[in-house]
């Protein structure tokens, strides 16, 4: 059983909606990540939180907004999305961000459809 | 040239066969290497980390060749449940540090 949980499992939203994806990890990890994965493609990193601070923010559109309330929780706020944002959104966590403890463990994902 | 390259497959093998996947990476400074498996419409699951000396976990053996910048995964006695996509993953330690995923190799094990 995965120790990284994500809700909801599926989400359908219109382009004017605001919604949030949630992630929780129970492994005491101090780094958490959001990835986006399109069909038949590898995961693409969107955001990284390390010790609850956003340490790297790739060039992700501002319609995606991450939040890390504490070291075990991660949210992704969605607003005014486009149909091309439809994808599997994966949360992951790792012990840290240093070499040697970088094994990342993924949650089951939220399958998002934007209509 | 892609930072991590894999043969996309698919590899079609019968049950009980031995199959090997290869992966090359371009950044010689890379230090951590992993194999993940991903089932259709599921999340990637860590299969094994790859160490310099090579490592084995049951039917799975991973090898690393730093000189050739090459990683391999060997699966012995294939099971139907091994059917999945296998992702070669490399940690980029410089600049923008992150895991870099290959596009994956699809394995289909048939009865």
Q: Give the strand tally of chain B.
A: 11
Give the end-to-end Cα distance of chain A, rounded to a whole number of Å.
32 Å
What would you call the quaternary organization? heterodimer
Low-pLDDT runs of chain A: none
Biggest interface and residues each: A-B, 22 and 21 residues
Uncertain residue ranges of chain B: none
Summed up, the helix count of chain B is: 0
Biggest sheet statistics of chain A: 7 strands, mixed
User: What proportion of the residues of chain A form beta strands (DSSP E)?
Assistant: over 45%
- How would you sum up the global shape of chain A? globular
- The total of helices of chain A stands at 0
Alpha-beta classification of chain A? mainly beta
Strand content of chain B: over 45%
Question: Over the alpha carbons, how many angstroms does the gyration radius of chain B reach?
Answer: 14 Å
Average of the residue pLDDT scores of chain B = 94
Main sheet record of chain B: 6 strands, mixed
Helix/strand order of chain A, N-terminal first: EEEEEEEEEEE
Q: Which structural category fits the helices and strands of chain B?
A: mainly beta
* Helix proportion of chain B: under 10%
Feature tags:
heterodimer, A: 7-stranded mixed β-sheet, 4-stranded antiparallel β-sheet, B: 111 residues, 6-stranded mixed β-sheet, 11 strands, globular
What's a quick, concise take on this entry?
The complex is a heterodimer of chains A (115) and B (111). Chain A is mainly β and 115 residues long.
How does this structure look, described?
The complex is a heterodimer of chains A (115) and B (111). By secondary structure, chain A is mainly beta. Chain A is 0% helix and 56% strand. Chain A has strands at residues 4-7, 10-13, 18-25, 31-37, 44-50, 53-57, 64-70, 73-79, 87-94, 105-106, 110-114. In chain A, a hairpin with a 6-residue loop joins β4 and β5. Chain A is globular. Chain A starts with a strand and ends with a strand. Chain B is mainly beta and 111 residues long. Chain B has no helices and eleven strands. In chain B, strands 2, 4, 5, 9, 10 and 11 form a six-stranded mixed β-sheet that branches. A five-stranded antiparallel β-sheet of chain B has the order 1-3-8-7-6, with no helix packed on it. In chain B, a hairpin with a 5-residue loop joins β4 and β5 (44-50). At the A-B interface, β10 of A face β5 and β10 of B.
